[in-house]
Design goal:
Chain lengths: 208, 208
DNA sequence: ACCTGAACACCGTTCAAGT
DNA sequence: ACCTGAACACCGTTCAAGT
């Protein structure tokens, strides 16, 4: 028994059953051990989630091409995060729930340095870094929320259900959402995420 | 006993004690009633949270100057949401946790219509609306997370503690976060939120 | 219809007791 | 030190029983 083994088991539970699948009971059963063994290596459940999240985020940050052109590096970082959060929705939930902690801090440092390399001036640098962080964490949270709603069920079916509900809204009150519903079938989360990043970078460029 | 009375009591509990203060036990005690009475008017706890959130959001949306210049109306909507979420952090948590539901849907419709009025073209309109929503929901989530961490304690003291922790980080590994820590005392969440909105709007303007 | 409150099926966490 | 597992202090929700 070790911290590593415990965190790996927790990650497996989260990946296969979603956020709700990680319970201390399920964890001890899977590890064929007692609560004391787990609590001897880990402070509490949040420590567990934070450690599992740190590992996933570290993997993404290690893949960032720091020596590339800053704008491309930022897009790479953002996409890397998106893909990893898409594969592990619980990571998104954890990031959105605990900002200012280790994993989020690492991302913040990386984003800040890349914006600095982009020559964003003085105090605008912190506004830009904060805004970009909030956008990314917002997407992370939405992704986690969708995964929570779908939970096991087909994701395409879930989106179709949403589109159906929106299409039935009062056209007078919800003209925009109805138009959005019509676009939902051809909608690609990943593309739209990147489009948002580009809007941001375009806005940041005007700060110079 | 009525749905309205129950939702008002729930709102009071949330406002005075934070997210964790709303339990069915606390609610029945405060209302001097049993569980059955509550469940007779409300589907479940989430229904309760959603209804309480709807009221707060509806108040903000009612205050949006729809006939104003779209850019100003958008800033007004964003600021209104920020202030209400700042006053009721649990609203931020609820919005971030349940997108695509009534309260978030109302915001999305409003944002979309205002961007349309801003003459954002075709499919860029949906990218822009999505990006803006994600930014706002991200900020909402962060706000809620901070309130959760502070929970009762002094907010200024909490931020000072964060700044202290950041200032003690390794300067070689975290140059950006350390610089951010130095700026934290003079940092204003509301101003930075608005700065983010402006970066967004500037980026959206380049889509035209 | 509207309400009561004991009971159920879960949680995370603790801690005396073992090795 | 490392681990076991009964027990504790909570949750949200249900439902037979009352009015």
């Amino acid at each position: 028994m070790s911290r590593e083994v415990i965190i790996r088991a927790a990650t497996d539970l989260l990946d296969s059953g979603g956020e709700s699948a990680l319970t201390l009971r399920a964890l001890t059963t899977r590890l064929k051990t007692g609560y004391g063994a787990v609590y001897h290596h880990v402070a509490d459940k949040d420590d567990l989630l934070a450690a599992a999240t740190d590992e996933v985020v570290a993997r993404v940050l290690a893949g960032v091409a720091v020596d590339a052109e800053p704008r491309q590096a930022l897009r790479g970082l953002a996409l890397g995060l998106f893909d990893e959060i898409d594969a592990h929705p619980w990571v998104g939930a954890q990031l959105a729930r605990h900002p200012l902690e280790s994993a989020t801090l690492e991302i913040y440092e990386c984003v800040g340095r890349l914006l600095d390399a982009l020559a964003v001036p003085g105090r605008a640098l912190f506004d830009a870094a904060g805004a970009l962080m909030n956008y990314v964490l917002g997407v992370a949270g939405q992704n986690a929320a969708q995964a929570r709603s779908a939970e096991g069920a087909d994701r395409a079916a879930f989106l179709a259900a949403v589109a159906g509900r929106w299409a039935r809204l009062d056209p007078g009150r919800y003209p925009f959402v109805r138009k959005a519903a019509a676009r939902l079938p051809e909608h690609d989360d990943r593309e739209q995420f990147l489009a948002g990043i580009d809007i941001f970078l375009a806005g940041i460029a005007t700060l110079g």
